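Students often ask why inverse folding is considered easier than folding. One informal answer: many sequences map to the same fold, so there is more than one right answer. In these notes we will look at a single instance of the problem. The structure comes first.
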C-alpha cells in the first residue's frame, strides 16, 4: 500500500465516523426532547413527570457534551497523526535521549500524560458541572484530585513495567514477537482481573462486609439456590463519589465476591436487591463473563498479529504522519507503531460497535430471564424502574441510537420481555 492510500482511507473513515456519530447524537436529543412532556403509558403509574423531565434533561445534556467531545477527540487525533504532533514529540525525545528503549518508553509516557491533560476540561466539566447540576456528584475537588493522582501513580507503577516489557519483546523476540507479546498481555489481564477486587479497588473505595443479617441470609439463600459460592458479600461506599447506584459480581476463583453500592441498598427493598443479584448471577450461569473474556483474547490475538504486520510497513508510519527513526522499521520504532495502532484502529472499528452492542443486549435479556426464574418478576421490574429513575436514565431513547450504542436494552423492552 502507498502512504497516500492509507491517509485517504484514514481520513474517510474518520469523517464517516464523525458524521455518523453526530447524526446519532442529534437523533437521540430530538427524540428524547419530543417525548419529554409525557411519561410513557406503561410507566405512568410508577414514574412521576418531574422524574421523567429530569431523565430527559440529563440525557440531552450528556449527549450535547458527547458531541463536543466527539469534535474535540477528532481534532486531537488529527493533531497527533496527520498534523505531525506525534512526529514532533518523537523528534524532541530523540534529540534528548537518542534512539533506544528509554526514548520509546518516554514517548509512551509523554503521550499518555499529554492525552490526560487534554481530557481534563471534559472530566472536570462532566463531574463538577453536569453531574453536579443533576445532583449526582458527591465528590469534592480534593477527592477528585487525590483520585487523579492515585490513578496516575498506579498507572505508572503497573503501566511502565508492562510497557517496557512489550517494547523489549517487539525489538528482541524476532518475527513472531507479536505472539509472545499477546501471551504476556493475556497473562497481565488475567492477573489484573485476579488482583483488582482485593488490591486495586480498595485503594479507591471502602469495602465493608454486609452487616444487614436478614439481607445476608436472603442473599446467601439465593446464591446457594443458584449453585454459587462467593467469598464475601461487601458494601462499597459508592456514595462518596456519586449518587448513581449499582451492584456487581467480581473476581473469579478464590477472589469471587459480591459488591453492593451503598446507594443501591438505600433505595431497594431486600426482594429487589435479590432480583438484581439474580440478574448478575444470570450472567454467570449463561457464561457471559467467560465468553467475553475468550472473545477479548481472540480479538486481541488478531490485533497483535495485525500490529506485527503493520509495524514493519513503512507506509503505515508515513501514511499516518510520522517519520520512522530508521527506514528499517523494526525495533527502534516500536513505540510509534503501538501509538499509531491504538489511535488508528478505533477509527475503523467504530462501524462494528452495533454488533457488540447487540450481543450485549442479548446477554441482558438472558440474565433478566434467569432472574425472573429465580426470584419474583415483580421485584425485578420494580428494581429496574427504581434504578432507571435514580440514575435518570431516559425511558424514551431513540431506537437507532439504542441499536448503535446501548449495552442494555431500554426499560420498555426489558419489562415487556419479563411480562411475556
Ligand atoms: Zn446485566
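Output (designed amino acids):
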Amino acid at each position: 500500500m502507498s502512504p497516500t492510500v492509507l491517509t485517504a482511507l484514514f481520513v474517510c473513515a474518520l469523517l464517516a465516523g464523525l458524521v455518523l456519530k453526530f447524526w446519532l447524537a442529534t437523533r437521540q436529543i430530538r427524540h428524547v426532547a419530543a417525548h419529554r412532556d409525557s411519561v410513557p403509558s406503561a410507566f405512568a403509574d410508577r414514574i412521576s413527570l418531574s422524574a421523567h423531565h429530569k431523565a430527559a434533561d440529563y440525557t440531552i445534556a450528556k449527549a450535547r457534551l458527547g458531541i463536543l467531545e466527539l469534535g474535540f477527540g477528532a481534532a486531537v487525533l488529527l493533531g497527533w497523526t496527520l498534523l505531525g504532533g506525534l512526529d514532533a514529540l518523537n523528534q524532541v525525545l530523540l534529540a534528548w535521549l537518542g534512539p533506544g528503549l528509554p526514548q520509546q518508553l518516554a514517548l509512551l509516557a509523554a503521550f499518555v500524560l499529554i492525552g490526560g491533560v487534554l481530557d481534563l476540561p471534559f472530566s472536570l466539566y462532566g463531574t463538577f458541572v453536569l453531574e453536579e447540576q443533576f445532583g449526582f456528584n458527591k465528590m469534592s475537588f480534593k477527592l477528585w484530585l487525590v483520585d487523579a493522582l492515585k490513578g496516575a501513580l498506579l498507572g505508572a507503577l503497573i503501566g511502565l513495567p508492562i510497557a517496557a516489557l512489550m517494547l523489549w519483546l517487539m525489538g528482541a523476540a524476532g518475527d513472531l514477537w507479536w505472539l509472545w507479546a499477546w501471551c504476556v498481555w493475556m497473562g497481565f489481564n488475567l492477573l489484573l482481573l485476579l488482583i483488582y477486587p482485593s488490591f486495586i479497588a480498595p485503594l479507591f473505595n471502602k469495602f465493608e462486609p454486609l452487616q444487614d443479617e436478614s439481607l445476608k441470609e436472603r442473599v446467601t439463600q439465593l446464591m446457594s439456590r443458584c449453585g454459587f459460592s462467593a467469598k464475601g458479600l461487601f458494601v462499597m461506599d459508592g456514595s462518596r463519589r456519586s449518587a448513581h447506584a449499582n451492584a456487581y459480581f467480581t473476581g473469579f476463583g478464590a477472589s469471587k465476591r459480591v459488591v453492593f453500592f451503598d446507594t443501591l441498598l438505600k433505595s431497594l427493598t431486600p426482594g429487589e436487591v435479590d432480583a438484581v443479584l439474580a440478574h448478575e448471577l444470570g450472567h454467570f450461569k449463561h457464561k457471559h463473563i467467560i465468553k467475553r473474556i475468550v472473545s477479548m483474547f481472540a480479538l486481541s490475538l488478531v490485533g497483535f498479529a495485525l500490529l506485527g504486520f503493520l509495524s514493519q510497513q513503512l507506509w503505515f508510519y508515513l501514511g499516518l504522519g510520522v517519520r520512522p527513526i530508521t527506514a528499517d522499521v523494526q525495533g527502534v520504532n516500536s513505540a510509534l507503531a503501538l501509538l499509531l495502532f491504538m489511535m488508528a484502529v478505533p477509527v475503523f472499528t467504530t462501524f462494528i460497535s452495533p454488533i457488540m452492542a447487540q450481543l450485549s443486549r442479548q446477554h441482558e435479556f438472558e440474565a433478566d430471564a434467569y432472574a425472573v426464574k429465580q426470584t419474583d418478576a415483580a421485584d425485578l421490574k420494580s428494581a429496574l424502574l427504581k434504578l432507571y429513575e435514580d440514575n435518570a436514565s431516559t425511558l424514551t431513547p431513540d431506537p437507532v441510537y439504542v441499536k448503535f450504542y446501548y449495552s442494555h436494552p431500554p426499560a420498555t423492552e426489558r419489562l415487556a420481555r419479563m411480562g411475556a
